Amino acid sequence: MKKFLSVLFISTIVLLAACGTAEEDASQGDTSEEEETGESVNGEDTLWQDVQEAGKLVVGTSGTYAPVTYHDENNELTGFDVEMMREIGERLGVEVEFSTMDFDGILPALRNGQIDIASNDFAITEEREEIFTFTDPYKFSYGSVIVRSDDMGHFESAYDLEGVPVALGSLTSNYAIFAENIGAEGTAYDGGVDAILRDIINENQDAYLNDVLVLHRTLEGFDDDSLAVAEQVKFHATESAFPMLKGNNSLKEVIDEVLQEMKEDGTIAELSQEFFGADASEPVDQDEVVSLEGN
Predict the structure, then answer these.
(1) Does the predicted model carry a pTM greater than 0.85?
(2) Which of 101, 157, 172, 179 is the one with CA 20 to 30 A from 76?
(3) 40, 91, 57: which is closest to 248 by C-alpha?
(4) Would you call 162 exposed, middle or buried from its count of C-beta atoms within 10 A (0-12, 13-18, 19+)?
(5) Tell me: the pLDDT tens digits for 217-267?
């Protein structure tokens, strides 16, 4: 197997992190009622006012999840979510200050007030909405798989993953939960996507589960036509948005207005084409995507 063509795609070590489940959220410790509601002592939400007074919006991101958030060949932070946030900050007239950290630390940092908002392709889930306020969704996608090209005929739908050994970036991701629910045999990797793809080629795994947009970008940087995305396998539709502390509606309202503007003027579609090679600004057809309870 040949190596990746660039550091960009090697950095997808934490590809699945952005769709982590509420299990991560539930393990982040207790906060006071005041922290969880996002309200000040007198009951008023002042976050947007605080951001304006400070002149900056502090954003938590990992910087290790290409093409969503990563460091380019010049070690400059970029990616779809990063450039989305920069555009939002410019339109709101505030500086965007990124605070990079491990994915597992982003939501705790949000709850502890270290950051104002998170930007790491966070999928909206009912469990997360109990703790956080989300902006309107800006990215729509679904899960798929990378398989050996010769085995493409074995995967006509997501149900064909039952009993199949599959590679995962994390055992706490939404994709891991889907794999469990569908009856696949999931194995989590912490050695990066290169190890995952090598094991698929060597037949130690039969498939790699992740966001279809990320999978396509991964293969673009991998010079081996023995692997392919099984386009017919579609599961776990996602809507991604920016989370903030529960009750921070003042910030949500202004960002939602900007997101609507960016959608109407084509900015979101343009950025998604740049980083994903596809327009991710429109909802996917739910009838074409397999969805299992709990995923």
Answers:
(1) no
(2) 172
(3) 40
(4) exposed
(5) 989 888 789 999 999 999 989 999 999 999 999 999 999 999 999 999 999
